[in-house]
Design a protein that fits this description.
The structure is a single chain. Helix 1 packs parallel to helix 12 and helix 5 packs across helix 7. Helix 8 links the parallel strand 7 and strand 8. The protein has 325 residues and is of the alpha/beta class. Strands 8-7-6-9-10-11-12 form a 7-stranded parallel β-sheet, with helices on both faces. A 5-stranded parallel β-sheet has the order 2-1-3-4-5. It has 2 domains: 116 residues, 3-Layer(aba) Sandwich (Rossmann fold), CATH 3.40.50; 182 residues, NAD(P)-binding Rossmann-like Domain (Rossmann fold, 3-Layer(aba) Sandwich), CATH 3.40.50.
């Protein structure tokens, strides 16, 4: 008998067909979000599951799923999954790195340009019928070309964002837990600096770090106060990396010129004060949401699941057993 598996949210039909070649698949194509109790009931007899970042997998859930062997997240991030609890339970965890890097970098630039040039604010002005004609100081924004781009987190996506800055003749400064190789810095026209210098010098600061306890409120009230006056903050990484309440304060007081945000603390809820700020561009966690990229993510997660349950060695395993185990 084929192993039983669950797909927690709607995915593409051809991905389901691929899974059905290997498994008995229960698929939530109605796309109804599952609360923890519903998820636990649906997983009780499953060997594997394809999850999304809204599905919480923790020790309590695992306790009721004794047959579970693999959790395959349709995302790069995996802060919705307790990796240590999965390892203790002998459950493999995978993610989908690489396939969404370019789309996320593209979208980061969409946020940069929309925020700097006040695209959303001026669009709303026009749609409300308030535009009465051209005048010199209409919606004055900030130039992106020649501005200093600061990148916090210089992994795959951060580097692709930096490469795109070459077309705008922007100097790039970055800070990361590890300095990039000299050839990478040359290719990206990027210079490694301390975090303090990054905050002080960047005209536009773009965040590309994962969410974890160590990065919770990495950009908080103190860091926002150290940023260059009139700077722009862009976050297409993870909610919780920024203290949203502190950001609201900095924006409302004019300390920062604007922010472009694709992610939020406690999403899909967000700080209601953000809604009323004209100098913020808000999007609903869609940085990777091109048709091609979301399909590639789902198919990679499916291939991870097939490999996990057939070979025990999926290509994007996040919790390999200790050496010698």
């Amino acid at each position: 008998m084929k192993p039983k598996t669950l797909v927690t949210r709607e995915i593409f039909d051809d991905v389901l067909d691929y899974l059905a070649e290997h498994f008995m698949v229960s698929a939530n194509q109605a796309d109804t979000p599952m609360d923890p109790g519903t998820l636990a009931r649906n997983l009780a007899d499953k060997a594997g599951v394809m999850t999304t970042l809204v599905d919480k997998v923790d020790a309590a859930l695992l306790a009721g799923c004794p047959q579970l062997k693999a959790v395959c997240n349709i995302a790069v991030g995996f802060n919705n999954i307790d990796l240590a609890a999965c390892s203790r339970a002998g459950v493999m965890v995978t993610n989908t790195p690489g396939v969404l890097d370019d789309s996320t970098a593209d979208f980061t630039w969409a946020l940069i340009l929309a925020t700097a040039r006040r695209v959303v604010e001026s669009d709303a002005h026009l749609r409300r019928g308030e535009w009465k004609g051209w005048y010199l100081k209409q919606f004055l924004g900030a130039d992106v070309h020649h501005a200093t781009l600061g990148i916090l987190g210089f992994g795959r996506i951060g580097r692709k964002v930096a490469r795109r800055a070459l077309g705008f003749d922007m100097p790039v400064i970055y800070h990361s837990h590890r300095r990039a190789e000299p050839e990478v810095e040359r290719a990206c026209n990027a210079t490694f600096v301390t975090r303090e210098e990054l905050l002080a010098r960047a005209d536009i600061l773009s965040l590309h770090v994962p969410y974890a306890p160590a990065t919770h409120h990495l950009i908080g009230r103190a860091e926002l106060a150290r940023m260059k006056p009139g700077a722009i903050l862009v976050n297409a990484a993870r909610g919780g990396v920024v203290d949203d309440a502190a950001l609201v304060d900095a924006l409302a007081k004019g300390r920062l010129a604007g922010a472009g945000l694709d992610v939020f603390e406690n999403e899909p809820a967000l700080n209601p004060a953000l809604i009323g700020l004209p100098n913020v561009v808000l999007t609903p966690h869609i940085a990777s949401s091109s048709a091609a990229t979301r399909h590639a993510m789902a198919m990679l997660a499916a291939r991870n699941l097939v490999a996990a349950l057939t070979t025990g060695n999926p290509p994007n395993l996040l919790n390999p057993p200790p050496t010698g185990a």
